[in-house]
Design brief:
The structure is a single chain. By secondary structure, the chain is α+β, with helices and mostly antiparallel strands. The chain contains four helices and 30 strands. The radius of gyration is 28 Å and the shape is elongated.
């Protein structure tokens, strides 16, 4: 009997000793991040909605404390559905209305989902470098970074490098006893930007994606017809032009043309070129080349960088607000994320908190896009987040990042 009782006592002690280990183990499991649709769900959040709008495309709505709402899209690496940059009304600038709702842009191209993109000016023009389907839409500005997708699907986060040059041709005078004609002399002119506001002493290339006119005053502008290859100007491809006319500001930009516009010293350079063309000293043929970071097909600008190499990359102090973010996880899946703000119990997130959230969602690289009242998440043509405008209605923006 004593022996049997001793065994029971040992078993009881064993159970008592094991209980703390069980509790510790259960706490460890519960505090670890769970996964849903391949998205890491941060501790403290619960999944309140989930959708699978297309092959390799997933959407989750996450809620924290009943009121902080986060929408997350994961686009699987190798998905047949692709990311695309959309311009409001198909233009960088132009007449009103300048901006367009994200949902309208999305529905126009029948996308699966979309979020708002770049910051924009009070006039509705996007700020920063934009590339759409390999076409240069606007030049980079200041030191802000770009989220870029190469043609082979490679993802990049950093400054978008864009250089633009206009090459003109000057016939050489035949020399030697046989009076052989040598190839024409090539003269390269550096162009300072594409589809951006022309500043003093600067030269800007305007394409039909800018708008119906250059919206400039004064200076010198040379209009040129695109000879080959036909269609929109593409990055990395020298485009043959036929210089056809010159005027002072406000030139029209027909669909098959570009305009090179200069002010100050740049205007003098263009004036001299046009005089040489009229006098026969220079050929009316020229080429323009826009060189980009290798292979970039889609690119959108934002700031600041939130996550770099899996670690928080910003110390920016900001108020809590609605946020829109883009990035990718270690598998190369793209993450599009919005956080609601600007309502009862919906204060949004600071930039630092937004970075922490993206890291918790598994992002190894992430960029902050336009937020506040612009923050919009569209799924199957419908706005599923709560915009933080005063009326909580979706507002127009300059750019959308869509999945087609």
């Amino acid at each position: 009997m004593k022996k049997r009782g001793g065994k029971r006592s040992d078993r009881r002690r064993g159970i008592v000793l094991a209980l703390p280990l069980v509790l510790v183990a259960s706490q460890t499991v519960s505090s670890a991040s769970s996964y849903a649709y391949g998205v890491r769900v941060p501790s403290g959040y619960r999944v309140t909605a989930r959708h699978h709008p297309g092959s390799g495309v997933w959407h989750l709505e996450l809620t924290r404390r009943g009121h902080q709402v986060v929408n997350v899209a994961r686009i699987e690496r190798g998905s047949t559905h692709k990311l695309r940059i959309l311009l409001s009304n198909g233009r960088v600038s132009g007449p009103a209305p300048r901006t367009e709702r994200t949902s309208t842009m999305c529905n126009r191209v029948r996308c699966l989902l979309a979020v708002n993109g770049s910051f924009f000016t009070t006039a509705g023009a996007p700020v920063g470098g934009l590339i759409g389907d390999g076409r240069p839409l606007s030049s980079p500005v200041d030191a802000r970074s770009n989220f870029s997708v190469a043609g082979d699907g490679t993802l990049r986060l950093g400054r978008l490098l864009m250089t633009t040059s206009l090459t003109t041709f000057y016939p050489r005078v035949p020399t030697g006893l046989l009076r052989r004609t040598a190839p024409p002399e090539e003269r390269a002119i550096s162009v300072n930007g594409v589809n951006v506001r022309r500043e003093a002493d600067r030269m800007v290339l305007y394409t039909p994606q800018f708008g119906p006119t250059t919206e400039t005053r004064g200076g010198t502008e040379i209009a040129a017809r695109v000879v080959s290859p036909s269609g929109p100007l593409r990055s990395g491809v020298p485009t043959v032009l036929e210089l056809v006319s010159a005027r002072s500001g406000g030139s029209r930009i027909p669909g098959n043309s570009v305009v090179v516009s200069g002010s100050g010293k740049a205007a003098s350079t263009l004036s001299a070129l046009w005089n040489d063309v009229k006098a026969g000293r220079a050929e009316s043929r020229a080429t323009v080349t826009v060189a980009l970071s290798p292979g970039v097909a889609q690119s959108v600008a934002g700031k600041p960088v939130l996550i770099r190499d899996g670690e928080r990359a910003t110390r920016t102090r900001s108020r809590a607000d609605a946020r829109t973010m883009v990035g990718w996880n270690e598998r190369g899946d793209v993450l599009l994320v919005t956080v609601d703000g600007g309502g009862p119990g919906r204060a949004g997130l600071s930039v630092i908190d937004a970075a922490n959230l993206m890291r918790s969602l598994g992002a190894v690289e992430a960029l902050n896009l336009d937020g506040g009242g612009s923050t919009t998440f569209v799924l199957n043509g419908r706005v599923v987040n709560r915009p933080s405008t005063s009326s909580h209605r979706e507002r127009g923006v300059a750019v959308a990042v869509a999945i087609l």
